[in-house]
Write a structure and sequence with these properties.
mainly beta, four-stranded antiparallel beta sheet, 2 helices
Length: 213
């Protein structure tokens, strides 16, 4: 699914041999993806895949389904560039989704022509694994009470805020680095309160897959 974002994994000398540098950005090379707010007509609708403004472009109808790019209406307010947070979860090796943990700081979004794209950040993952399991998450923090994914994931699963999670992927680390490009997707609400804990995030991801077009 998607975080219209890109995670680039490279081992840099300044971090030594005991960690991998993780750069979290919205584009890499020819890839250029975007994150959208919920549908104005159906806030429970989840779409994922390339849209017409992505590179490579696709046919996912975000605009036709009443969605607006994160940050398109400015910095503040709901789904604003500074009030919508993004982060990635990771674990070394081939790891189950329940073992993925937040890595590094949260980030926000750009406005204007770069709306829908995150502000690039860099973090480190300890160790030098041969492969890494990574998943991106994005959530609405316009209330200011969900500054971390641990807090936001509970609110999302309880139907309190809109959020979305990428499908976990295993990235091979070759010559000290690798690249993970996430596809575009939108934030959405879960329609019914859930008692699923953070470890059950896969159930929410499954719900989104069932609603994709």
């Amino acid at each position: 699914m998607l975080l219209g974002g890109t995670i680039v994994l490279t081992a840099l000398n300044l971090f030594g041999q005991g960690s991998v540098a993780i750069v979290f950005t919205s584009h890499s090379g020819t890839a250029n993806d975007h994150i959208w707010g919920p549908s104005a007509t159906d806030p429970y609708l989840s779409l994922l895949g390339a849209g017409s403004n992505d590179s490579p472009s696709g046919t996912t109808p975000y605009q036709a389904d009443g969605m607006t790019l994160i940050g398109a209406n400015g910095i503040g307010g709901q789904y604003g560039a500074a009030t919508t947070f993004a982060q990635f979860l990771a674990a070394p090796g081939v790891a189950p989704e329940s073992s993925l943990v937040p890595v590094g700081p949260t980030t926000t979004f750009h406005t204007g022509g770069a709306a829908g794209q995150i502000v690039q950040i860099t973090a480190t993952l300890s160790g030098q694994p041969a492969e890494v399991t990574v998943m991106g998450v994005v959530w609405d923090n316009s209330s200011g009470v969900y500054p971390t994914w641990t807090q936001a994931s509970v609110a999302w699963l309880d139907g309190g805020i809109a959020a979305a999670a990428d499908v976990p992927q295993v990235i091979p680390i070759s010559l000290g680095g690798g690249t993970y490009v996430m596809g575009s997707f939108n934030l959405y609400l879960i329609p019914e309160p859930s008692t699923i804990p953070l470890a059950g995030l896969g159930a929410a991801a499954l719900l989104a897959r069932r609603r994709q077009k």
